[in-house]
Amino acid sequence: MAVSTDLSTNQLDIWVIIDKIKNNFLLRRILKALFTIWVVTTITFFVIRAMPGNPVEIMIQELTAAGVSPDDAKNQAAALLNINLDEPAYMQYLDYLGNVLRGDLGNSYKSRGLKVIDIIAQVLPWTIFSVGLSLLITFSLGIALGALMAYKRDTWIDNLLSNLAATLDAVSPYLIGLLAILLFGVIWKIVPISEMRGALSPGVQPEFSFEFFVDVFHHVKILLLVYVLSSVGSWMLIMKSNTISTLGEDYVTVARARGLPDSRILTAYVGRNATLPLFTRLAITIGFAVGGSVLLETLFTYRGVGYQLARAISERDYPVMQGVFIVITFAVVFANLIADLLYGWLDPRIRIVGGND
Amino acid sequence: MQRLIDTLTRTWRETVKTFKLLSRNKMGMFGFLMTLTIILLSFVGPIIWPPEQSANVADINQGISAKHWLGTDFQGQDNLRKVINGGKDIVTVAFLTGVLATFFGVIIGSFSAFVGGSVDSLLMELVNIWLTIPKFPLLAVTATVVKLNDPVTLSLLIAFLDWPSLARQVRSQVLSLKKRDYIEAATMLDLGTRNIILSELLPNMMSFIMISMIGIMTFAIYQQTSLVFLGIVPYSSANWGVMISAAERRGVLFNQQAMWSILAPMGAIVLFQLALVSFARSLDEVFNPRLRTTV
Amino acid sequence: MNPTLSVQHLSIEYQARRGRVQAIRNVSFDVNKGEAVALIGESGSGKTTLGLGIVQLLPGTAKITQGKAIYHRNGHAIDTLALKGKALREFRWKECAMVFQSALNSLNPVLRIADQFSDTAKAHGYLQGRALADRARDLLSLVRLDPDRVWKSFPHELSGGMRQRVLIALGLLLEPQLLILDEPTTALDILTQRNIMDVLKELRQKLDFSLIFISHDLSLAAELADRVATVYAGKIVEMADVQTTFREPKHPYTIGLINAVPTLKGTREELTSIPGSPPDLIELPTGCKFHPRCPLADAQCKQNEPELEPISPGHQVACWHWKLARESLNKFKA
Questions:
Q1: Which residues in chain B have Cβ-Cβ distances shorter than 8 Å to A298?
Q2: If you ran DSSP here, which 8-state letter would residue A183 be given?
């Protein structure tokens, strides 16, 4: 960042900095991400603390009903939810923010003694694994099939795949999950569903061994399948539409006129240009997958963050709910940031580092 | 007043034209008719076949038979009857959400596109930020503090979360339409922003609006049934989502006979969603010449 | 000496919803070695279709219903319309390069100019690496571009005129015998247009290639072409060397076109245009396709379509009344 050091005043020129920020794609993007996280933590605070019928009041009521004195109840509720009820609202808010920044998300209401951050740390890697892997498969499959559909437009393959994609896209993910369990586990009995509940077989230790990975995969494969099936439809259709547009572009015709081989045209001319706009879709897909994880992990008893959130919701364990929600959003925002930066790097029309804007 | 009548007439004519074109597309007609059928059954059905009051212990968890076309549930009640009665809530919420979200999305989206400039940029940045937040967890968490016993509140909440994505789509649509000549002409004739939006833009966007609304509806169905499934929304009535949730909790999935009490409501939801989506897809094909397969 | 390209009885049709569009009808003409032929006509006359047809880049709805395009080089002759697969790819750009109208979107937006050149070279087993870069940069200088500025940039960093010139340089990379330019300056402003025309003239002097120049702009044709063919409703209606075309045109359409262009000097005459509009290529008029707009039309014109006939060495006309053409010039001004 350029610092304008005027010898006479010797101070940072704030306007130069603001200007630099406005022109630098990377900085802008990071600021937006931080802002989003701030918005989310604030919303969570608002929902948990400020709305009528909010958890704090409920907790106090419950404790008082259980025979705890009003003061003690207040203190206990405050301690659990990590807020100081004697302070004015804005101070509570600042405390809350400070705690979140420090990674202190309070303690679980239901399982006293367990810190929320520890609970999350235990389950988060599982979700990242399942959602991450499924997204990778969805993207690759969606792009490949979408391009295929565009090239083989109007043939039986295109019609079949298009209808399949539209159908998959229309059905809710958890219905797909239920259907998967029904079909694979109960009717066709391909997979031993009851064995597959949970992320690991009992007794298997997490370690970097082959058996571990095999076991993990054994448990997660249907879940992966369901994730992929629920998102791949829209990717295929959008990729098909993008590819058709790109195929109609002048530079593709000119590429053929230049005698370029089909393989080169497919990858560097059609492929890259058709895939780029998909990045805007990435954000939605990531958010959708993470949101869907709440349901699907519950359905498959897969102990990831989604499962944790669902459990916390049904148990009304507010600290855990609050903490998981913030972490989920943080993860999504972060993933989107990476995706945006990747897009900025890949598309020469948007340059990350300063320069032409 | 005359302006309003004109706009309504034009919009009506456009809609009629849409349907005429639509009838050429078999998938679309099927989707449309199926949607109508489901809606009718859900509202008129319960009057003709009211829900059973008591349990028939003798008939618990039966598969398909002549007496019970879709089998029975864990209480011995007929699944088909429950399905007919179970649609009202779902359909109501879907429609309400669709209308509300579309209404706000269209107004704010077209306003933003039309005004342009820094107002537009700001609004869109806000929308983008809003869109990064994962909807369903937010919905679930909010549902714990807000009482969601009636369809209206639920619809409001879901619509509140869903309208921004619609606003963004509407905005880009309006932006592309804005560049067309007749809009420029209207602007130069100084017809006023509100007038232009009402009489020039909207009639031409009807198909797009309809498609978007259907998208919102499909998503709303997903969201509300998910809430029920997770036990966040109370079991106030026996709608399809409740049927699925209740059955799943009783391990019905593992019993080949009993599974119809899950398959039936699932089928209903899937059918409804598919019907909506085929209708929307055919609308899209009709109005998007590039996607058309014939010349 | 065999002509570089000999188009013989070429007919091309498109399938549209209303019916079949007869874009090119039984067209024959030659392009000799080192010669520049201009194809002039209004929008929709079929001239672009002709260019696309030669390199087989017509859209899927088009069909070549008859004809050949015989290409000669070093004593070998091939029909470009019969080429397939690898042979077709080798022919394209190496033997015949077609530079399209409006280069605004003709270059892949995600590749640098250097990569676009190396792609082309690699596809034809041409020079690579340093040798390629040197040659390409020479070509860029030839088209009056600064190689340093252009070589590593992306298409969107260049102006329309610059992109057009890059495309021309790219077209010359493999030293083709035949260059087809389709409206190379139409989308550009006057100054850039001038620039490109000058570049093209220089190139013709320095390098040895045959050129087919497709345009609706007569004045540009006058600058660049050796021979001019006027195209109307998918047919060539007059073909002559450039001097004759402008001094002694014999087809009413050609005359109308020339009259429509204002002259810089001379008396202040009224600008005339040809009344009416180009015919519907699906339902063509009977007889001579120009008769609805022609001041000389009579019953014969309505019934029979005239073919291209030589009326003097190097001058062909398709008109029943070409002898009256000059005298009836004034009728357009009525």
A1: 229-230
A2: I
Note which residues in 250-289 of chain A have CB less than 8 A from chain C.
250-251, 253-261, 264, 268-269, 272-273, 276
Q: Which residues contact C241 (CB under 8 A, 6 or more apart)?
A: C226, C227, C228, C314, C315
Identify residue A315 by its one-letter amino acid code.
E
For residues A213 and A206, give the distance between their C-alpha atoms in angstroms, rounded to a whole number: 9
C114 to chain A: which residues are within 8 Å by CB?
A: none
Q: Select from B253, A180, A251, A357 the least CA-distant residue to C110.
A: A251
Chain centroid offset of residue B148 CA: 19
Task: Decide if B170 contacts B113 (C-beta within 8 A).
Answer: yes
Q: Which of C50, C58, C71 is nearest to C15 (CA)?
A: C58
ipTM of model: 0.84
SS3 for chain B, per residue?
A: CHHHHHHHHHHHHHHHHHHHHHCCCHHHHHHHHHHHHHHHHHHHHHHHCCCCCCCCHHHCCCCCCCCCCCCECCCCCEHHHHHHHHHHHHHHHHHHHHHHHHHHHHHHHHHHHHHCHHHHHHHHHHHHHHHHCCHHHHHHHHHHHCCCCCHHHHHHHHHHHHHHHHHHHHHHHHHHHHCCHHHHHHHHCCCCHHHHHHHHHHHHHHHHHHHHHHHHHHHHHHHHHHHHHCCCCCCCCCCHHHHHHHHHHCCHHHCCCCCHHHHHHHHHHHHHHHHHHHHHHHHHHHHCHHHCCCC
Nearest CB to A333: which of B132, B143, B244?
B132
Checking if the pLDDT of B223 tops 90, the result is: no
Nearest CA in chain B to C18: B295
* Facing residue for A244 by CB, picked from B225, B278, B290: B290
Taking CA atoms, what residue in C is nearest to B294?
A: C17
Contact B290 A53 (CB under 8 A): no
* Contact pairs from chain A to chain B, CB under 8 Å: 143
Digit-coded pLDDT (tens) for A37-74: 888 888 777 776 665 556 667 777 777 777 777 777 77
Residue type, A190: I
pLDDT for residue B28 is more than 70: yes
Whether B248 has its CB under 8 Å from any CB of chain A: the answer is: yes
Question: Mind telling me how many Å the CA of B2 is from chain A's nearest CA?
Answer: 41
What number of other Cβ atoms are within 10 A of residue A357's Cβ?
10
DSSP state of A115: B
Q: Which alpha helices (H) appear in C248-332, and where do they start and end?
A: 252-260, 299-303, 322-325
- For C113, other C-beta atoms within 10 Å of its C-beta total 26
Q: If you count residue pairs, one on A and one on C, with CB atoms under 8 Å apart, how many are there?
A: 74
Residue A294 has its nearest CB partner, among B133, B137, B262, at: B137
In chain B, whose CA is at the least distance from the CA of A294? B137
Cβ atoms of A280 and B216 closer than 8 Å: no
Contacts of B156 (CB under 8 A, 6+ apart): B100
Is pLDDT above 80 for B71?
A: no
* Residue of C108, C119, C175 best to disrupt the A interface, most CBs of A under 10 A: C108
pLDDT number for residue C133: 92
pTM for the full predicted model: 0.81
Extract the tokens encoding C199: 């570049």
Q: What's at C118, amino acid-wise?
A: S
Give the mean pLDDT of chain B: 77
* C155: DSSP letter: G
* Residue among C51, C41, C39 at smallest CA distance from C10: C51
Exposure string over A226-253, b if 16+ CB within 10 A, otherwise e: bbbbbbbbbbbbbbbbbbbebbebebbb
The DSSP string of A324-339 is HHHHHHHHHHHHHHHH
Asked if residue A332 has pLDDT above 90, the reply is no
CA distance B222 to A292: 10
Above 90 in pLDDT, residue A116? no
